[in-house]
Specification:
Helix content: under 10%
Shape: extended
Organism: Psychroflexus planctonicus
Strand content: over 45%
Structural class: mainly beta
Radius of gyration: 21 Å
Pfam family, one: Phage_T4_gp19
Number of domains: 1
Protein name: Phage tail protein
Order of helices and strands: HEEEEEEHEEEE
Distance between the termini: 11 Å
Largest sheet: 8 strands, antiparallel
């Protein structure tokens, strides 16, 4: 990990966190899809607690267990004649759905990918169309949630 180093202003300018608003998403063969928000890139290790029968300690030993990956939620605006989310989830019939690779890239100000998350064996779990409210002037946003079997992060 690169840490800021004392020095002149031009040296310090190299050490700024990446903005989170510039990203791209690929789903299967569809490249650079326009999403408003991506969330749920969670990785968690289950904790196994164990205490053997003749332990003199009055507590448990904690060991790492299986990795768990969160479901990834993607949100985008609703457009006329765009039914892609519903088409994806409608193709699911038990376990016969062709799994997808989902690639999420965080970009810097020059559109260079700086971090990448690749979801393996992903499939749409849930699609939520926009809510409708006659007293609001907001854009319609639809949501798709992908479950997956693993995630690789690369820098």
């Amino acid at each position: 990990m690169a840490l800021p180093v004392a020095g002149s202003g031009d040296v310090q300018d190299q050490f700024w966190p990446l903005p989170k608003f510039y990203f791209s998403v690929d789903i299967g063969d569809f490249q650079d899809l326009p999403f408003q928000e991506v969330s749920g890139l969670d990785v968690e290790t289950e904790v196994i607690e164990y205490r053997h029968g003749n332990s003199p300690n009055h507590g448990t030993i904690k060991m790492p267990g299986l990795m768990k990956y969160g479901d990834v939620t993607l949100k985008k605006g609703v457009f006329a004649d765009d039914n892609q989310f519903f088409d994806w989830i409608s193709q699911i019939n038990l376990n016969t759905y062709t799994r997808l690779t989902v690639v999420i890239r965080l970009l810097d100000e020059t559109a260079t990918e700086r971090m990448t998350w690749t979801l393996t064996n992903a499939f749409p779990q849930k699609v939520t169309p926009t809510d409708m409210n006659s007293q609001s002037s907001e854009a319609g946003i639809e949501t798709i949630v992908f479950s997956h079997e693993g995630m690789v992060q690369s820098v």
